[in-house]
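Thread title: Can someone regenerate the structure for this chain?

I was given the following input by a collaborator and told the matching structure tokens would be attached. They weren't. Posting the sequence so someone can regenerate them.
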Amino acid sequence: MQITLDLPEELVSQLNAVEDRLDRVLELGLRQLNASDRSEFSGTVDVLEFLASLPTPEEIIALRPSATLQEQIDDLLEKNRDRGLAPEEEKVWQQYQYLEHLVRMAKAKALMKKKEAIAHE
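Best answer:
Regenerated them for you:
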């Protein structure tokens, strides 16, 4: 598919630098945009507050979804298998996917910090 856009020069310069990854830039941007459409993430406040507390790498690596959050995710997965998701449910699912992406990034960085600490010992 081809799309033509009129963009400010500053944005064009930034996009030229990542031209080979534009599909990923758009995917992540859309994911973040969809996640920010709501004023809060249903069932994810604990995760966001945990990450905001600047936990240790070990605490980040050990992070798991709460029972409530896991139940909400399981419910959406079941609905998707049984009948598909309504548009609002799809938005919630995208928010959960974005949150999972953030947690995975935090865990990857925590693992790198832990490995660096071990290497410097």
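The chain has six helices and no strands.
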